[in-house]
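During data preparation, a discrete fold description was generated, and the record follows.
___
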Amino acid sequence: MTNQRCTWCTEDPDYIRYHDEEWGIPCHDDRKLFEFLILEGAQAGLSWITILKRREGYRRAFAGFDPAAVAQFTGQDAERLLQDEGIVRNRLKVNSAIKNARAFLKIQEEFGSFKQYIWSFVNHTPIRNQWQTMSEVPVTTPESDAMSKDLKKRGFSFVGSTICYAYMQAMGMVNDHLVGCPSYSQPDFVG
């Protein structure tokens, strides 16, 4: 065991805090699950630190990540967001976040909560991997493939299998901390 953080975690304080306090910790809170759905979609094609540095801008721009509020956003709201320097100003990603909020609410209605739906892709139990090096960590899995396919069928966008796997890692549906990382053995508590 090396007892060092996962190698993707840079020395940036925001990255360290995210790695140590959020990434890989099982999350069952619908609002946070929605937040990361927006953030992971926004990250497509960019580095995660780019999004992490804009997280407060996203929180402000997207009504504190309240899916019911975001679902009510209009075309005028989308235009306003495209002028907001606190977020990534990409029309497809902004429109996707609004569309995804509406689909998110439909899932909540159908399943009682988004967590009930999304966690079903791992049988409601985190997958605990035992990677020694980052080169072993996959970018997609059969679970992320199935999640992506079903989310797309339900009207979501920016939910390809790679984005879904990153989402699963962030939300603790899989523990992809390297075995030598101090965070690997953290308890699987509900975040």
